[in-house]
Write a structure and sequence with these properties.
By secondary structure, this protein is an all-beta fold. Helices cover 0% and strands 45% of the residues. A 4-stranded mixed sheet has the order 1-4-3-2, with no helix packed on it.
Length: 40
């Protein structure tokens, strides 16, 4: 999982989902798990 300073909606690829858990933003992708990222 990559930790990025910002995850923006305009940078989403196909299959990406943005989820907020415990105050942190996560990008998850079932089709391409290498795109997993967390903001902060």
């Amino acid at each position: 999982m990559k930790i990025k300073t910002s995850i923006k909606k305009k940078d989403l690829a196909q299959g990406d989902q943005i989820v907020k858990r415990k105050g942190k933003l996560y990008r998850i992708n079932k089709k391409n798990p290498r795109r997993k990222a967390r903001q902060g």
